Amino acid sequence: MIQQISQLLPELWQIAVVLVLFLETIGKPANDAAKPKWLPLAAAAGIFVAVFSLKADGLLFFKAYQVDSLSQFFKLAVLVGFFIVVLNADPLPTVESEKRSDYFLFLALSALGLMFLASTVELIAVYMALEISSYSLYALIPLRGKDQRAAEAGIKYVLFGAAATAVSLYGLSYILATQHSTYLEVLAAADWTWTHSPLAVIGLTLFLAGFFYKLALFPFHFWCPDVYDGTGNETAAYVATLPKLGAVVIMIRLVAMLKPENGIITIIAVLGACSMTFGNLSALIQKDLKRMLGFSSVSHAGYIMVGLSAVSAKGLAAAGYYSLVYVLMNLACFWVICRLATDGRNITLDDLNGLYKRAPGLAFIMAVGAFALVGLPPTAGFMGKFFLLTSAWNRGHDWLVIIACLNTAISIYYYLNIVRHAYTAEAEEPLPAPKPGSALWGGVLATLLLILGAFPGPVFHYAEVAGKLLIP
Amino acid sequence: MSMMEYLAYAAFGLYLFLIVAGGLAAVLSKNLIRSLVGLIMTLFGVAGMYFLMSAPFIALMQILIYVGAVSVLIFFAIMLTRAPGGESGIEGSTPKALKRGLLALATALMPAVILGAIIIRKTPETLPLKPETALTVLGEFLTGPFALSFELISVVLFVAMAGAVLLGFERRKSE
Amino acid sequence: MILAFLILIPICGGVLAWTMESRHPGTARWIALAVLLGNLGLTALLVPARFDVVSAVGPFLISLELAWMPALGIHFHLALDGLNLVLVFLTHFLGLTALAAAWTEIEHKIGFFYFNLLWVLAGIMGVFLALDLFLFYFFWEMMLIPMFFLISVFGHANRTYASIKFFLFTQISGLLMLLAILGLYFIHGRLTGRYTFNYLELLGTPLSDVSGMLLMLGFLMAFAVKLPAVPLHTWLPDAHTEAPTAGSIILAGLLLKTGAYGIMRFVVPLFPKAAAAAAPFAMFLAVIAILYGALLALSQTDFKRLVAYTSVSHMGFVMLAIFAWNQLALQGALIQIICHGLSTGALFFLAGALQERLHTRELGRMGGLWAAAPRLSGMALFFALASLGLPGLGNFIAEFTILLGVYQVSKPLAVLSALGLISAAVYSLWIIQAAFHGPPQPKLVLADLSGRESAALLAMLAALVFLGLYPQPVFTAAEPALTHLTRTAATQKITEAVPAPPGENPHASP
């Protein structure tokens, strides 16, 4: 029993955070405007708990819950992201003051769902964990004052989410019908070839659709730019980053069951290629920064597929590493957006004009974030992309590597545009300067990106160990 | 084919009709109350399917919870918030709308046709239908291998309810 | 460790310069100066008594190999031989010149400027020293971002367009090189079971004709854009013209040279067969670059643009020499690299100095400057003469040696490229005639060169004269390295690659 508790420490910590937040939401008087000041501290402590339990290992709850290197890696990533998102949501200008602790409650719940997702190895539990994180977002996304666009974004997210979930469940029924189990342990030993069990292959593909949706992979990406655009900046920072971690970890687990020559892998590779190309081409013409990042995340979902389609320990590790880096670099960009939008409005490229003069720190963070998204050394984005490309080469998807490179070339233009606006364009009218000291945590993110770019070894090695557990 | 099998097919057809017709009524009706009735019809059809698969307990639960509780709750919600009238401003049958409808139909039918074709061609082996699963076995399943899912559902419900409260309060204020 | 310090010191110095910006912006200059002088001193320590060291792997004077990501066969592998020692010296020399040019030109965001300047120098140093292909690519891309900032933040009117064009050209071609590097990595790994990016191990990887050609083209694209070779040169005039003076000096003097160095060090030795097959074509393009660049230079009215096009022409000589691939031509190419760096750097320096004083680069609006600023004009005359290849100066030695080397390979090309020398004389004298001679403009107040500017130019002048009269030290230094390169390329066993049996897991290496 004690041992089980020690294996679940990060989850238990997050549950405790959720409970305290819940008590606070029902306990405090309605006009109390203060946001929970202890939350950043608790979130930081969560990171330490997760680091402490990195080595935890075990199979719990009737073999439905696997605590291993992979799950602990992603739990740590989720908690790091949660910490940054909580800090990022500090002024929270668009959420009415009495709803702020509710806001954080749902943030914490969603992160909790993602942490469950990292460990569940039974498809129904996987589905439930996914729903925990989605339902929280359904409640969060429309919260943006009285903004009409936020309501629209909320509806879109719910409708698309419901449709994707339905497809996913439908696929689950096929898997259950043909393979007679929902446990990954059993499914991994089953035959997934098209000739033997075509329905199972269709079922798994449909089941993956739910995660494609979370990841905003083509053709399940339609919600992405609209939702980023419509919802509050702080919420968008969360929606754009952490849920992708959950999707990636499940896809890693599912892909690890398959043989490299399986048809599903080809589907994943093709969707990845479409996703990169479509996302990048659409991002080229965007003026709104959040929409641009939305399309950029569509294309990054495609890059992650490059690693998954390799179906090797290295490939899975590369996908894991890249998703971590993806979270960090997007959070860095959103950090700047949230600092600039003091009144919670959407930021266009022109709002970045003259940023270098007003706030050199923020401009630097933006530049590091953008260059990391392009994949240039010495940022972690380069290393991540490099790992992805090396892992996929010679695994039957060389064309995908070339498409990924071409897409990187396309994407340079619009990321560079961000940097250009921040550094060279002059503001036509003086824009308000952000508060001093606002660059602090963003600076930490930028530094992390640079450090992970120069010394990716330890983290990647850990990810590789995790990958080797799945594909020896 | 024995008599029982014919009856089973007939019942399957009936339930199928209930589900599809109810669903169409729920989506197409301009009157909220009629939509709700359509929804209830669908839910009854689903319950019938459970009966057909010799899972009477689940079927009863379906009727009890969805028809008995959820639908009534929705009914109350409609009654208490607004008049059960239809919304105006729905587009008529212009050629454009017709084209859009056809496209939507085609999009919806395409995966159904593909999946259906595959299923008909490669029917999975059916397991012999077991006699009714005892309640105790069901309970052991839910507290055994699926205990985690069972517990997680409660979290999902909590999130759904709390979210509804959060958004519901907001809506009242903005009106 | 000294090699790592050569790169680390500018990186740290850059960060330091930037952090000082808010309090003491002026100190950034002194930090940069101290960093470059310190580095120069360190490099001087590396100069050995003899260059022809006997070593199994090559004539490396000193090397450094640290594990970076050993699981992927990536090492932090730097090494120094005579060839890159010369280039590292050039880097420091031109770095100091750029510093002198920027001393008064850059007045705002000083810290950020020197941060970028030092980082781009660190990147260039890394490119010259890296012997691990991954590390090489890392530095190759790393020098791009600071250069982009140098142009886009500190450049002239049309800087945004120029900087984005520069960035897109180099980055996209760089991606092709990355693909080629990966391809080579996997082919080598599959054949030998050792997955490594180590240049010395990758040398001599047997390749089939097709894959060798494709990989070679991947590398060549990246280097040809930087060099620049003719169809890919269009970024260069814009970038040179819009960059601040220091940026132009770095671009012309160093960045272009990384392309030449890349072809010498990587393209030909790694893919001798493919390079030999492509050589006639490449040499033809080089001759076109020589003539076309000179022709375009003749029609320019903007001082910096003119000098930029002369770079295209001069770098054409370098490309011609490298693909001629004999000892004589390579020696010439190296001297040309140095002398072109010095003379063009100096011309950009002068263009910058004139722009600072006259606020124009239009040759049409100059004229008669000799009377107002005799020292400046005299310097300009000297470097223009150097650029046209006046005997007694380094450029003459370079071009003469190159032509001799090329003559052994292809007589028509040597003759054609000699035509470039004639046009060089025309455009160089046209600069002098347009800007400095002619009737003196009344009411023109023009400060002559300051002590700082004179010192920088005098140093370059001295170097050019020295190389023109006595180029032997450079020949001696580079000779073993160049011999080694030619020998590796020649003795490489050119066998058909045997594809691995199907089903073999390429990642199963120990």
Concise structural overview:
The complex is a heterotrimer of chains A (472), B (175) and C (510). Chain B is 78% helix and 0% strand.
Give your account of this protein's structure.
By secondary structure, chain A is mainly alpha-helical. Chain A has 20 helices and two strands. Chain A has a two-stranded antiparallel sheet. The two termini of chain A are 30 Å apart. The model of chain A has no long low-confidence stretch (mean pLDDT 87). With 175 residues, chain B is mainly α. Chain B folds into two domains: 1-85, NADH-ubiquinone/plastoquinone oxidoreductase chain 6, subunit NuoJ (Four Helix Bundle (Hemerythrin (Met), subunit A), Up-down Bundle), CATH 1.20.120; 133-175. Chain B has helices spanning 3-28, 32-52, 56-81, 95-121, 135-143, 147-174. The radius of gyration of chain B is 21 Å and the shape is globular. Chain C has 510 residues and is mainly α. Chain C has one domain. Chain C is 73% helix and 3% strand. Chain C is built from 20 helices and two strands. Chain C has helices at residues 2-19, 27-46, 82-105, 110-129, 133-142, 144-154, 159-192, 199-202, 209-226, 235-242, 245-270, 272-298, 303-324, 327-358, 369-372, 374-388, 394-409, 411-435, 451-469, 472-491; strands at residues 62-69, 74-80. A two-stranded antiparallel sheet of chain C has the order 1-2. In chain C, a hairpin with a 4-residue loop joins strand 1 and strand 2. In chain C, helix 7 runs antiparallel to helix 9 (209-226). The chains are: A mainly alpha (472), B mainly alpha (175), C mainly alpha (510). The A-C interface holds A 312, 314, 356, 360, 371, 374, 376-378, 382, 386, 389-390, 393-394, 401-402, 405-406, 408-409, 412-413, 416, 419-420, 423-425, 456-457, 460-461, 464 and C 68-69, 71-72, 109, 112, 134, 137-139, 141-142, 144-145, 148-149, 152-153, 159-160, 163-164, 167-168, 171-172, 175-176, 178-179, 182-183, 185-186, 190, 506-507.
